[in-house]
Amino acid sequence: MGATTNRIVWSGLTHNYGDASDIPGLLRACADPDADTAYDALADVSNKLYHQGGWVCSAVPAALPLLADLASDRAVHHRHEVVGLIGRLAREAVTVSGKFVDREWLPALDATRPRLLALLDDPDALVRREATLLVADGIRHPDSVTALRRRWAVEVDRVTRADLVLAFGTVFTWTSDEALRADLIALLADDDLQLRLAAVHALAESDPTVATRQVGTLVRAVLDPDAALWPDSAWIGGTPATIVHATGALLAADPVAATVFAVGTARDDNPQRRVAALGHAQQVLSQWRTTTDGLLPLLTGSLGDDAPEVRYRAAALLACLGLDAAGHADRLVARTTDSALRDSRSRTTVGDAAVWALARQSHPGCLPGLVERLSGGRLGFDTTLVHFGRDMPHLRQPAICEVLIPLRHHADVLLGSLAARRDLASNLCRVVEAWGPDAVSALPAVVDAAADAKLRAVAAKAMGAVGPAAADAARTLLPDVDMPTVAWALWRTGGDPDLGLTALTHHLTRPEPRHTVIALVADLGPDAAACTDALRTSTRSADAWTRVEAAHALWRITGDPVEAVAVLTELSQPLAQGDCLPARIAALSHLADIGVVDDRIRSVAQAIIDNPRRIAYSGGWRTFTEDERIRTAASALLN
Q: What is the dihedral sign for C-alpha 496, 502, 503, 505?
């Protein structure tokens, strides 16, 4: 390795962190007799040559033959991870645009290919498994097909055979070799259930419908004790639950088959795979609103599972479903006292999720649990608002204010305990804002919260929402009248309406007023008549939120729906195709408030109602609440 390394001018090459002069020393350290030293060096090489992918830097072609040396040397530690790194680099080269691949990569790969293909015959099964991934997806050459077929003929290790099947599926996507496809189809009848499972995965790369037709096989294979081989796979890996997630993902386009798979795999004796089955159920429910009835029995039955994480997920998913799970309130009430922690990394209990689920139904069974949590040392809910994208399958408790806001009719039971918690001042203000005059008794705590500059804006919103009873409280904020929420509160409470009106509308004279300010101006109604020209200008903004709130404000101020409806209809139109952004949800909700419906609006609303998929922008439990809000608005427009 030394002689080859010395012939390369590394300082003229780059990696993810700049000058590649450090690569020769790191590659030598990868061959260190000490396993820990070798591991640390390899991690550093991987970070500098690959990092998060996106390109093939100039240091990679120079390093490739040296990495092949390491992968082939049986005295080197962690050889399979070296092969894994080569595989990531090779796959990146065929994935990204050619302009991001160094021009020396292909010549280097061609020169090294025989040695890389030879790794398929390495004595170490770990190396052979990683080699199947490297060869099938990173070395797209006829020699790769020949080498993989040759290895299949002699391979006896079950995990490696399964990985070879997956490799053949990927090879078919770039060769269209019908003989190879025929071999994979034949494996669907193999005596080895895991090979049958592998064949479904392999065929699904080119034919997504094969998984739906084989759903019974998928369930049996995942439940089979031999499914324990998959964590050792270079293609699947992970934990015993990973094969459930990976297989369930093949069924994402078919809600019926996906439901069958979720119900079937939930019978697994392995608690990790039962948790994974509920994770799959979450994905199905998050995508398809038509699967609720089919999965409700699974969720309610899982409330009695031996594993706390299974019970927690079942209760939390019932919370996500809200009123759709109303028929199962009694089972949830029985779980509100379940003090088992969901897992070792969390202080959240099964009972917390059950209380949340009942709150989503506005069921009085949630009240004792909420009062206990508000009055005790362990809240069981978040204290900050957290958002995830649709591609983030997190399932966690909402902020306490988000749980309480829909429970306005229970303010007399809940407000005292919440107001007494100084550590929940921000949450209190958000609840008071939503509950308005019903939360007047919490005003002293809101005034205390306003003493904190960081909370002044949200406290002002709370005061304004309470109305005239908060006039004195709002006057305490007069020094901050330039703050839009303070100005609004002074107007809305009557604390100093003229000053509040002047200060708030002044913000619209700025070149691009914030949409949050425009929403406050909308509340002024006819008092903000002087703002109509500025608002009309804002309806033509490049920012969707600005357009939405400006259109709504125009209607609130003028009473004329024509301009507002035209803008809001245009902005909400993509919801008809399930294309969701938060501003589009707001636009549709404003249309429902206005109540003027034409054929175009009716068409959008009907498309939303007819769509079997959930329409949402956010992930986790918000997927369900956003979909509910969209459908509620669409229904209002059709009635």
A: positive
Tell me if 368 sits within 8 A of 337, measured CB to CB: no
Same domain for 37 and 83, yes or no, is: yes
Q: State the Cα torsion 356-362-363-369 to the nearest 10°.
A: 40
Determine the Cα–Cα distance for residues 537 and 529; give it in Å rounded to an integer: 14
- Mode of pairing for the β-strands spanning 14-15 and 18-19: antiparallel
**Cα dihedral sign, 11-13-18-23:** negative
Q: What is the mean pLDDT of the chain?
A: 95
Give the pLDDT band (50/70/90) at residue 473: very high
Q: How far is CA 130 from CA 79, 184, 233, 237, 621, in A?
A: 10, 20, 8, 11, 37
- Residues with Cβ within 8 Å of 530's Cβ and at least 6 positions away in sequence, in order, are 505
Residues 6+ apart with CB under 8 A from 338: 308, 311, 349, 350, 351, 354
By residue range, what is the domain housing residue 584? Answer: 510-639
Q: Which of 362, 344, 333, 357 lies closest to 307 in space, CA to CA?
A: 344
CB-CB neighbours of 516 under 10 Å = 14
- The answer to whether residues 1 and 132 belong to one domain is yes
Cα–Cα distance for residue pair 390/286, rounded to 1 Å: 9
The confidence score (pLDDT) of residue 3 equals 44
Q: Is 637 within 8 Å of 597 (Cβ atoms)?
A: yes
Of the candidates 613, 615, 629, the one whose C-alpha atom is nearest the C-alpha of residue 284 is: 613
Per-residue pLDDT tens over the stretch 82-102? 999 999 999 999 999 999 999
Same domain, residue pair 296 and 381: no
Domain termination site, one of 152, 175, 204: 152
Domain count, the chain: 4
Tokens of 14: 């780059």
Report yes or no on whether pTM surpasses 0.85: yes
Q: Under the phi-then-psi rule, with left for phi > 0, alpha for psi from -120 to 50, and beta for the rest, what region is 254?
A: beta
Residue 73 lies in a domain: yes
Question: Residue 406's beta-bridge partner residues?
Answer: none
Report CA torsion sign: 28, 32, 35, 36.
Answer: negative
Neighbours of 9 (CB within 10 A): 10
In the chain the first and final C-alpha atoms are separated, in Å, by: 76
- Same domain? 283 vs 319: no
Residue finishing a domain among 275, 302, 329: 302
Whether residues 70 and 169 fall in one domain? no
Q: Are residues 276 and 315 in the same domain?
A: no
CATH of the domain at 142: 1.25.10
80 and 32 in one domain? yes
Tell me which residue has tokens 């006829």.
142
Residue 22 within any structural domain of the chain: yes
| Per-residue pLDDT at 6 exceeds 80 | no
- Residue 628 resides in a domain: yes
Q: What amino acid occupies position 632?
A: T
Q: Degrees (nearest 5) of the Cα angle 238, 242, 248?
A: 155
146/173 same-domain check: no
> Tell me, what's the pLDDT at 441?
97
Whether 534 contacts 509, CB under 8 Å: yes
More confident residue, 390 or 254: 254
Question: 382 by DSSP, 3-state: which?
Answer: strand
Q: Is residue 487 part of a domain?
A: no
Q: Are 262 and 295 in contact (CB under 8 A)?
A: yes
Determine phi and psi for 341, rounding to 5 degrees.
Answer: -70, 140
